[in-house]
Amino acid sequence: MISHWLQADWPAPPGVRTCLTTRTGGVSTGVWQGLNLGDHVGDDIAHVARNRALLAAELGCTAAWVQQVHGTAVVPATAQQVLTADALWTDTPGLACCIMTADCLPVLFCRRDGTRVAAAHAGWRGLLAGVLEQTLLALDCPSDEVMAWFGPAIGPQAFEVGEEVRSAFADQHPEAEQAFVQNRPGHYLADLFSLARQRLERCGVGYIGGGGLCTYSDPERFYSYRRDGQTGRMASLIWLDPH
After folding, report:
1. What's the CATH number where 74 sits?
2. How far is the C-alpha of 61 from the C-alpha of 243, rounded, in Å?
3. CA 243: distance to chain centroid?
4. What is the domain range of residue 20?
5. Which residues, other chains included, contact 46 with Cβ-Cβ below 8 Å and sequence gap of 6+?
6. Do the domain assignments include residue 178?
7. 94 in a domain, yes or no?
8. How distant, in Å, are the alpha carbons of 97, 105, 110, 193 from that of 12?
C-alpha cells in the first residue's frame, strides 16, 4: 500500500483490510489538487476516474461507492450501481465498502469473527439521526462483537457549531453536552469523535479505536470543506481479503 495512505490501527481479525486515502498523489489539479475521489465536487470527471483507477489498482479490490446525503440509510455494497446511502456493508471478499469525506467522520466497522464489514459517513446530522446505530444493525451480530475505528475528521479545535446543534444532541442524551465547549456567545466547538464514541459506547460496541486526526488543521494531507470550501474528497475503505 502507498506509504502516505493510512490504515486502521486496530486489532481486527485476519482478513479484514482497510485503507484511508490522503490528498497526496493522483492527477487532480487546482482546488482539488491530489487524489480527489469525489465525482460531485466540480473536478474534471476524467481526473476523478483516473484517481479511482489508481486506487483500485493499488488495493486490488473493487470499491463500492454511494451517493451520500447525510442520512441514515445503510445498504449492501454493490459495484453494479451507485446507491443513495450514508453507510454500506458487505460479506463478499474483495468488495470494499467506501465512504468519502472532507471533514465528516468516517467510521469503519467489522465483526470480531471477520465475516462482515461496514463503513459509515457521519457528519453531525448523520450522527444525530442515528447512522452509526443503523450500521450496527446491518452487521447482524451482538454489539459487543463489533469493532469500530474512527478515521480523520474535523477536530474539536476547529468545528464550530451553533446552539441549535448542541441542544439537539443534548436533548437526545444529556451527556452529549460534554462534547461541546463554548467559544463565543451562541457558538460552540464540537467534538465529533467524542459524540460518535458516546453513541457507540451506549450501544455496547466491544472495541472503539482511532480518532484524533484533524482534517482542517492538516492541509498537506487532508481535504477540508470547512477550511477550503470547494475541495476534493478522501476515501475510507474496508473489505475482506479475497485471498
Report:
1. 3.60.140.10
2. 11
3. 25
4. 16-153+203-240
5. none
6. no
7. yes
8. 16, 20, 7, 20
Q: Looking up cell 476524467, which residue turns up?
A: 46
In the structure grid, which three cell numbers stand for residue 157, read together? 479545535
Instruction: Tell me 39's DSSP state.
Output: S
CA distances from 13 to 17, 20, 91, 133 (A): 9, 18, 14, 22
- How sure is the predictor about 3, in pLDDT bands with cuts at 50, 70 and 90? confident
Q: What is the CA radius of gyration of the chain?
A: 17
Confirm whether 121 is domain-assigned: yes
C-alpha to C-alpha distances, 223 to 148, 212, 229, nearest whole angstrom: 23, 16, 10
On whether residue 91 sits in a domain, the answer given is yes
Q: β-strands 83-84, 66-67: how paired?
A: parallel
Total domains, the chain: 1
Q: Whole-model pTM above 0.85?
A: yes
Confidence band for 243, pLDDT divided at 50, 70 and 90? confident
Q: Where are the alpha helices (DSSP H) in 30-162?
A: 45-59, 124-129, 131-139
* Side-chain-side CA neighbours of residue 118 (13 Å): 29
Element (H, E) at 161: strand 160-162
Angle between helices 192-203 and 131-139 (to 10 degrees): 40
